[in-house]
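Design job #97: recover the sequence.
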C-alpha cells in the first residue's frame, strides 16, 4: 500500500504553503513522485526538504535516521543517544517514547544531525508539553527537523561524495513515498 500523502507537488504546497519559502522552489502541478525524481537530479538539497514534507511523519523520521546513518553516522555518545531515542519511538510509537525523544533532542547540541532526529520524532505528534501546558505541534515540524538532520549530516561528507550520497538517500525516500520500502 502506497504511503503517498500528496498526489501532486501543488497538493503539498497547498497543505504546507510555507514550504515554498523554506525550500525556494516552484511547486508544479505534476505528480509528486515525478517531481521529486526531477528535483533530486537538479537540486538534491531542495529535494531532501520536499521528500521530508512528502512523507508521513513516522516515515520521514525513519528515512531521516537511515539517511543520517548513511551520510555521517553519529559518533559521540550524545548523538548516539539522540538517534536511539528517535529509533526507540519508531519501533514503538507510543506517546511516552515520543515525549522522551523530544526531551532528549531539546537537551542536546542543535548543531548535530541526530539531535534533529530526536526532535523530529518528538514533534511527530499533535501536541507536546511546554512549561505546565500542552501546546499544539505545527504539522510541518517533523519535516523541518528531518530536513535539518539530513542536511547537517550531508555537510560532513566529502564534497566530491556529498551529492552522490544525498541522491542515494533520496532514492530511498522515493521508494518509501511510493510504498516500495
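Job complete. Output follows.
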Amino acid at each position: 500500500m502506497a504511503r503517498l500523502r500528496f498526489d501532486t507537488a501543488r497538493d503539498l504546497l497547498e497543505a504546507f504553503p510555507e514550504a515554498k519559502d523554506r525550500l525556494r522552489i516552484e511547486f508544479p502541478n505534476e505528480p509528486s513522485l515525478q517531481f521529486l525524481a526531477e528535483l533530486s537530479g537538479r537540486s538534491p538539497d531542495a529535494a531532501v526538504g520536499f521528500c521530508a514534507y512528502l512523507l508521513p511523519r513516522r516515515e520521514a523520521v525513519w528515512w531521516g535516521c537511515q539517511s543520517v546513518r548513511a551520510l555521517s553516522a553519529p559518533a559521540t555518545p550524545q548523538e548516539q543517544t539522540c538517534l536511539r531515542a528517535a529509533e526507540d519511538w519508531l519501533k514503538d510509537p507510543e506517546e511516552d517514547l515520543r515525549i522522551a525523544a523530544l526531551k532528549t533532542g531539546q537537551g542536546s547540541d542543535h548543531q548535530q544531525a541526530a539531535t534533529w532526529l530526536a526532535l523530529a520524532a518528538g514533534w511527530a505528534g499533535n501536541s507536546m508539553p511546554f512549561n505546565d501546558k500542552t501546546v499544539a505541534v505545527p504539522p510541518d515540524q517533523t519535516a523541518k527537523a528531518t530536513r535539518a538532520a539530513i542536511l547537517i549530516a550531508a555537510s560532513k561528507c566529502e564534497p566530491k561524495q556529498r551529492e552522490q550520497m544525498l541522491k542515494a538517500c533520496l532514492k530511498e525516500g522515493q521508494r518509501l513515498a511510493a510504498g516500495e520500502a
